[in-house]
Amino acid sequence: MTGWFPIFLREMLLFKRKLFKLGYLFSAMVVPVIYLITFGLGVGRSMQVQGTDYLTFLIPGLVAMSSMTNSYTWVASALNLNRLYFKTFQVLVQAPINSFAIMIGEVLAGMAKGLFASILIIAVGLLVAPDFTLSWLLILTLLLNCFLFACLGVIVGMITKSHEDTSTYNNFLIMPMSFFSGTFFPVSHMPKILQEAIAVFPLTHTNILIRKSMLDSEGLTALAILVAYAITFFLLGSRLIRQYSE
Length: 246
Fold this sequence. Notes:
Layout: H1 4-19, H2 22-43, E1 48-49, E2 52-53, H3 54-84, H4 88-94, H5 99-128, H6 136-159, H7 163-180, H8 192-198, H9 202-210, H10 217-242
Antiparallel strand pairs: 1-2
Helix pairs in contact: 1-5, 2-3, 3-5, 3-6, 3-7, 3-9, 5-6, 5-10, 6-9, 6-10, 9-10
């Protein structure tokens, strides 16, 4: 299992090359900041949602969305390219490394990238929203969300047949979750039939949990669902790596 570290280190060295480039920082920030300015600063000070101003409600949702998008996208795209075009993943699989170790290395790298983007949003949130505060539950939820969607990124990266397929999965999985899982408004405002469908999305439960100040029955349910998703995605991703034969 110690074989995960070289995989993680390789991804971090590649990430380091992009980290201090203005283009990367801008791309990591631009979409959440646009949403923050448009929805949060535009209407946030004149609306109350769930007992708080809309800006304070919005920022945890943007943190959840940003961690999902970056953790998933980085892993799915990199794994797809390494497997289909650069052929470096084949070398990795042939090395004497356990499939769980490969999975852990890829997932931890995705988590690091998702956390970096989320920290940028949190920093902006602390500046523009005086009522927004960090809590241990927000940090726990953020870590779990990054882990979950990094695992999903591994799954998508392993099953796609071309790089264009990753965009298809993004359109059918990530984009609907971004807009309908409680990021911008409570799910309770949606029609009842849609609420039942939206409850399937893991990000829905992330948005429930990340806005809690302490665990209650709803929070425990959301936490249990997220843990179940995380374990399922991790085991499925490890199995796909173990059975890889291209």
